[in-house]
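Many introductory courses stop at the sequence. We go one step further.
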Amino acid sequence: MTAKHSISFTVKNSEIDDMGHVNNVVYLKWVQDVAISHWSSVAEPDDLENYRWVVRRHELDYLKAAMPNDIITATTWIESLEGVSSVRMVEIKRGDTILAKAKTTWIMLDAKTGRPARVTQKMQDSFLI
């Protein structure tokens, strides 16, 4: 397992559905947001320019509802990183309460060709910090 990375934010009124809680699609956006934040915080400038990550698979378990104005923390870490793929875990919490858990498989692409690109040892090492 690699070092964890977290972001925090407040639930916006625009994220609330007609049932009065955060729409399920928003959780998926939060999973993506924390993953992008993590990548952006550890990647070298050349890596940010030359590579892109795309989702191959999402698994998302909804455990409790987030409500208007809740302060949310999304935390992510890499479970595995090999070849062209990465399995990333995410927990979405309100305080100590876990609202959702996600497991996402990402594939790294060469930004110029759009073809899968192998994760370098240097990139792997940067996620361990």
